[in-house]
């Protein structure tokens, strides 16, 4: 499975953010930002825009070894977030590689 992003060693779910512990550092991703980054068919087509101004995270389930499925307070639960996407979102947000907190 070369090229696949390995799973973080721990995932912490908070209502307003998701915290991921990678081997090389910790990343925190905002719930609203994650909701906006959903890549399910409905969201990509613009049909599933959140009705909630500040969506909260209400659940997270692993999908195989490669991704996390997130559930949001607006009822949306179809978003699959591969580890590689979560890494990318963090990099984009921080503008720099992962750092230790
Ligand atoms: Zn979606």
Number of strands: 6
Estimate nothing, just give the exact number of structural domains.
Answer: 1
The average pLDDT is 86
The H/E string reads EEEHHEEEH
Query: Which class of secondary structure composition applies to the elements?
Result: alpha+beta
How big a fraction of the residues is strand?
A: 25-35%
Which fold name is given in CATH as the topology?
Answer: NE0471 N-terminal domain-like
Uncertain segments are none
- Assembly classification: single chain
Strand order within the widest sheet? Answer: 1-2-3
State the major sheet: 3 strands, antiparallel
Give the overall shape. globular
* CATH class category label: Alpha Beta
Cα-to-Cα separation, first versus last residue: 29 Å
Number of helices: 3
Q: What compounds are bound to the protein?
A: zinc ion
* Estimated helix fraction: 10-25%
What is the annotated CATH architecture?
2-Layer Sandwich
Output the keywords.
101 residues, NE0471 N-terminal domain-like, three-stranded antiparallel β-sheet, binds zinc ion
Provide a short characterization of the protein structure.
This protein is 22% helix and 34% strand. The protein is of the alpha+beta class and 101 residues long. The chain has one domain (10-94): NE0471 N-terminal domain-like (2-Layer Sandwich), CATH 3.30.2020.30.
What does this structure look like?
The protein has 101 residues and is of the alpha+beta class. It has one domain (10-94): 2-Layer Sandwich (NE0471 N-terminal domain-like), CATH 3.30.2020.30. 22% of the residues lie in helices and 34% in strands. The protein has 3 helices and 6 strands. The chain has helices spanning 31-36, 41-44, 83-94; strands spanning 10-14, 17-22, 25-30, 57-63, 67-72, 79-82. The strands form 2 sheets. It has a 3-stranded antiparallel β-sheet. It has a 3-stranded antiparallel β-sheet with strand order 4-5-6. β4 and β5 (67-72) form a beta hairpin. The radius of gyration is 13 Å and the shape is globular. The chain starts with 9 loop residues before the first strand and ends in a 7-residue tail after the last helix. The relative contact order is 0.23. Residues 38, 40, 42-43, 48, 76, 78-79 line the site of zinc ion (ZN).
